[in-house]
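WARN retry 2 of 3 for item q-0093 after timeout on previous attempt; input resubmitted unchanged.
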Amino acid sequence: MKSLSKNTVACAISLATAITTANAFADTQITVATVNNGHMIEMQKLTPDFEKANPGIKVKWVTLEESVLRQNVTQDIANKSGLYDVMTIGMYEAPIWGQRGWLQPIDASGDYDEKDILPSIRSGLSYDGTLYGAPFYGESSMIMYRKDLVKNAGMEIHDHDSWDHIRDVAKAVNDPSKGIYGICLRGKAGWGDNMALVTTIANSFGGRWFDENWKPEINSPEWKKAVSFYVDLLSKYGPPGASSNSFNENLALFNEGKCGMWIDATIAASFVTDPKQSKVADQVAFAQAPQEVTQKGSNWLWAWALAVPVATKHEEAAQKFIRWATSKDYVKLVAKDAGWASVPTGTRESTYQNPAFQKAAVFANAELAAIKSADPKDSTLKPSPYVGVQFASIPEFQAIGTTTGQMISGALAGAMTVEQALDNAQKAAERQMRQAGYY
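OK item q-0093 returned
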């Protein structure tokens, strides 16, 4: 009987290894929970590319509104239910859940190039130097405005204008009879909805969520002045039903040409300048976020990131998906499919260094400047004990921010006064912090 050659044995082993690897992912389905934003919808569209490169792994999508997503993934991870293999979370959850041992560290080995991720984004998604969320896109906030309307009104907008000047511009361009509103802002209740914006306004008016002893300051003079300004501004010069509008609703209004100004996430810039989506794409200009008594904390910092809960039964497949969706190659894939102006931004230095992106994205420099100027460790005029610009990075904030958002949205809708809203939020926050043992 002939003995097998070394080459034959080697081939057999290689074949067996390949079969074993393929079988490891045979009929593996990973469930990805994400938010219903434009870049996530593009990711779903490109999923067949991932599945083709990874035979045996199928991706099931659960796409939810922002506030519903947060509720679902928080409940799932706290209960270790394992409903989702990949979760879309942000800079609030990643370090807290990483510290609690609820998330698997991101596999950033090999050619993933973790150091290419913008430092502030990487830091915000890490705990103790370990990355627990891979950024899909990052953002700050800035002014997006109709330069034709502003010019016709005899007004100008500059970087870091005062909120008082922004109010004057909103008044000048406001023309409801033609379906044009001076300004569109978030009004929908939620710690990541209206409170993302309102906190930056409060910061710029000199407010903070907590003093140095963790006592809430939601009904402070600074907060009252900021929220009164916000409610008055949006009530006079905003669209009807503003208390129901968040990112997607205002994006639709702006793209229809109904907003003179919109102060929101920098990530929107690629949508409002896209002629396929925006009727006013050629009339959009940008400026850095407004300030009042301070520039500190006047523009937020956020990243939507993909993370792996410890309860997943498909960690290896989940990590493969995340590496694909947050890689340099994925950015190139989107550029090939939809153009360089449509790639997810705010994550990698290499994107901003790419001449093709710079040429296509008229917003690139303004976006990058906003992201780099936001400092989560120094976001308030008075000293504060927390990290975060538009949130405080403590577990209790989610409940506090949600309640405060509900109260302020109620004030915007006319259900209560600003003073009543902030007093109610203050009482709820004090109760929450006492129960948590902060004081």
